[in-house]
From TrEMBL:
Residues 32-41, 154-170 form the Uroporphyrinogen decarboxylase (URO-D) domain. Pathway: Porphyrin-containing compound metabolism; protoporphyrin-IX biosynthesis; coproporphyrinogen-III from 5-aminolevulinate: step 4/4. It comes from Powellomyces hirtus. One of its GO terms (molecular function) is uroporphyrinogen decarboxylase activity. GO terms for cellular component: cytosol. It is found in: Cytoplasm. This is Uroporphyrinogen decarboxylase. It catalyses: uroporphyrinogen III + 4 H(+) = coproporphyrinogen III + 4 CO2; uroporphyrinogen I + 4 H(+) = coproporphyrinogen I + 4 CO2. One of its GO terms (biological process) is protoporphyrinogen IX biosynthetic process. PANTHER family: METHYLTETRAHYDROFOLATE:HOMOCYSTEINE METHYLTRANSFERASE RELATED (PTHR21091), UROPORPHYRINOGEN DECARBOXYLASE (PTHR21091:SF169).
Amino acid sequence: TPYPAHLDADFPPLKNDLILRVARGEDVERIPVWIMRQAGRYLPEFREERSKHDFFTICRTPELACLVTLQPIDRYEGLLDASIIFSDILVVPQALGLEVQMLPAKGPHFPEPLVDPSHLARLKKDVNVDAELRYVFEAITLTRQKLDGRVPLFGFVGAPWTLMAYMIEGGGSKTLSKAKAWLGQWPEESKELLQRVTDVVVDFLVGQAKAGAQLLQVFDSWAGELSPAQFNEFSLPYIQQIPTRVRAALREIDPTLAKIPMVVFARGAHYALESLSTPEIGYDIISLDWTMDPVASRKRVGDNVSLQGNADPSLLYAPKETIKKEVAVMLEKFGTKRRYIANLGHGMHPDHDPEHLRAFLEAIRDVSSERNS
Ligand code: CP3
C-alpha cells in the first residue's frame, strides 16, 4: 500500500522557520545553524543506544531512529535550527537488494559488492520504495510529530555517484580505484547503474517529503574523487535530474509539497560550484566543504542561492576561545543574514567533544546577534 501523504496541517505548527526563510532568500534576524552528522557517536547518549542495538536496527525502528534524531535537539535545546532524520545513505543500496553491514570501527561493508557489469542483474528492478524504505518514512512522520515544531526536519539521500562508489568498492576506500575503473572500462554500464540508482533516489526523496521532511539534502560525499570532466559526465547529469523530478512528482500530490527546499553537498568538487548553482537545476542551497573560501564562493554563485557551511570539522578540537574566534571570521566572510546557514564543512567526528560543539553553536548565536544589535 502507498505511504500516505502528510501536509503541514497534519503536524504541530513550526516555531522556528529560520532555515526555511534562508532557503527562500528572505532576511533573517540571526544566522541559523545545524550540523552534518549531529546525531552520532560523539554523543554518549547515542553510544548508549548503539550499545543495545545494531546500527541498521536503529535505522529500521522508527521509535529508535526518532529517539536518536532528537538527542542533539534536546541536548543543545535552542541552539540548533534544524534536525536531520537518523538514517544512512546506504539504505538505498539495501533497497536495491544489496546487503550492507555496519562493522564496528570499520564502517560500512558490502559482503558482495558489484564486481563487473554482469552483477547489475543482481539489483532489483522497479524498486517499490514505499515497501522497501517505509521504515524511513514512518521514522520521519513520527519525528516530525515529536519535534513538536521546535525546528524543521531534513530528509536526505546519497548522490548517485557516491552510492555507485560504495556499491562497487564495498566500503570505504582511499582511492576509489574499483569504482573509477568502471567509469573508464564500462562507461555505458556505469551510466545504467547511475540511472537506476537515480530513479530510486528520486522516489525516496518524494516519499520523505510526503512523510513530513521539510528540507532535503543530497550528499555527494565522494564527488571530489572525480576530475571535472568525470564529474560532468558521471555525477552532474544525475544530481541535476533530482530537483525537477522530485518537485514534479510532489506537485501531482499537492503543490505546497513541491516547494520543499533542496540542498546539494558535493564534497571536494570545487570546479562544480557554478554548474550546481544554476537556477534551472533547482537547488536552493549549496553546502560548501571547508576547503572552499566563502568570499570567492559567494562571488562565483551570485545572489540567487543560499550557501551552507563550512568550518573545518577539526576546528572542534581547538580550545573554545579559538572556536569562537574562527566562528567570528567565518561569519564575517559569509557576511550576511541573507542566504547563509552555518554548519561544518563535513560531519562530526566520533571523537569530538560535545562541549566543543556547544561552544561552536553558542559562538554562532552570539556573533550573529551582536552583529544584529
Ligand atoms: O545526524 C545525522 O547527520 C543523521 C545521520 C547520518 C548518518 N549517516 C548516521 C551514521 C547521515 C546524514 C549519514 C549520511 C552518510 N552516511 C554519508 C554522507 C555524509 C558524509 O558523512 O559524507 C555517508 C558517506 C555515509 C556512509 C557511512 N555511514 C559511513 C562512511 C559510515 C562510517 C563512518 C562513520 O562516520 O561512522 C557510516 C556509519 C554511520 N552513519 C554512523 C552514523 C551515526 C556510525 C555507525 C555506527 O554507529 O557504528
